[in-house]
């Protein structure tokens, strides 16, 4: 998938798409589960009204996920596109230096390398070369790349290409130095990723551990005590549905914030973690929904 520049117009379109998708679960609740919604409303503390139906709550969480999912998917695909560019920068500059050393002009070397090295970077350079053929200076055509793809390494690479084009007889030295620099940067990024990935895994593990503990407390202690209450036990104030809802909401907040933390750790932006938030919210929602479907009958607890 090509890089999609997220300007204000496209951000608005993604938000509109997310809003349209988010309305689907809400409409399903208001039409198909309206009775369940109304019967599950509970007043807490005399003022706060919450929904205690797990199915309704899961659909509402799905609505939240769908709201930001289009942006999260496009942002993730853009990051993958940029990663494919930065990964080949060392090889690109090395091949470009060898092409210039063989006697090709800088423009001819660019064309030769892009023809022999397919990928996202070659596609961007080819786009710039098309503008050159239409009469635009090479430097100006290359500057279009970082204007469209906002990434520090891409901007540095374009700056080096423009400098090499203007440096006369030192083109090969500039390109070989660039290849070494980007090889070192790639090595640093790989080392950083190796260090950070365990922390991201820890974020996912914390969400799963919370889910397991919450369901254990619910189905080993709270729901059986609720069954005792219904048969005349002494826990008259215990409401299993309320506890389940509180734990579901807490799990959802843990999952959402955990995803943002994962994005900040791995990519330096909290918004880059929205895709992780969507995945973790899905894990929590699926866990509670499956538990209600398969574990509740085993405890003989029916609302």
UniProtKB/TrEMBL annotation:
Residues 92-217 form the Type II secretion system protein GspF domain. Its main location: membrane. It comes from Infirmifilum lucidum. Keywords: Cell membrane, Membrane, Transmembrane, Transmembrane helix. Pfam families: T2SSF (PF00482). InterPro entries: ArlJ-like (IPR056569), T2SS_GspF_dom (IPR018076), T2SS_GspF_sf (IPR042094). This is Type II secretion system F family protein. The keyword Transmembrane applies. It is a multi-pass membrane protein. The keyword Transmembrane helix applies. The chain crosses the membrane at residues 12-33, 45-74, 201-222, 242-262, 274-295.
């Amino acid at each position: 998938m090509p890089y999609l520049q997220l300007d204000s117009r496209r951000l608005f379109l993604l938000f509109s798409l997310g809003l349209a998708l988010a309305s689907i679960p809400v409409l399903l609740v208001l039409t198909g589960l309206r009775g369940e919604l109304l019967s599950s409303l509970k007043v807490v503390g005399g003022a706060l009204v919450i929904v205690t139906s797990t199915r309704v709550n899961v659909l509402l969480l799905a609505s939240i996920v769908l709201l930001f999912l289009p942006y999260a998917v496009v942002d993730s695909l853009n990051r993958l596109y940029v990663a494919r560019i930065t990964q080949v920068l060392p090889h690109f500059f090395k091949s470009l230096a060898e092409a210039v050393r063989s006697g090709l002009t800088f423009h001819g070397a660019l064309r030769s390398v892009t023809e022999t090295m397919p990928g996202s970077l070659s596609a961007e350079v080819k786009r710039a070369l098309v503008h050159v053929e239409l009469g635009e200076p090479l430097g100006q055509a290359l500057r279009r790349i970082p204007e469209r793809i906002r990434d520090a390494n891409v901007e540095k690479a374009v700056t080096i290409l423009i400098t090499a084009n203007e440096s006369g007889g030192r083109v090969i030295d500039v390109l070989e130095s660039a290849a070494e620099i980007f090889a070192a940067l790639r090595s640093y990024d790989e080392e950083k990723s190796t260090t950070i990935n365990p922390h991201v895994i820890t974020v996912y593990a914390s969400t799963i551990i919370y889910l397991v503990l919450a369901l254990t407390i619910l189905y080993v202690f709270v729901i059986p005590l609720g069954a005792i209450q219904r048969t005349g036990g002494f826990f008259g104030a215990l409401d299993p549905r309320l506890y389940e809802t509180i734990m579901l909401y807490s799990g959802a907040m843990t999952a959402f914030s955990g995803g943002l933390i994962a994005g900040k750790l791995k990519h330096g932006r909290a918004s880059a973690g929205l895709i992780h938030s969507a995945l973790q919210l899905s894990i929590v929602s699926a866990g509670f929904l499956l538990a209600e479907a398969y574990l509740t009958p085993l405890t003989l607890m029916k609302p």
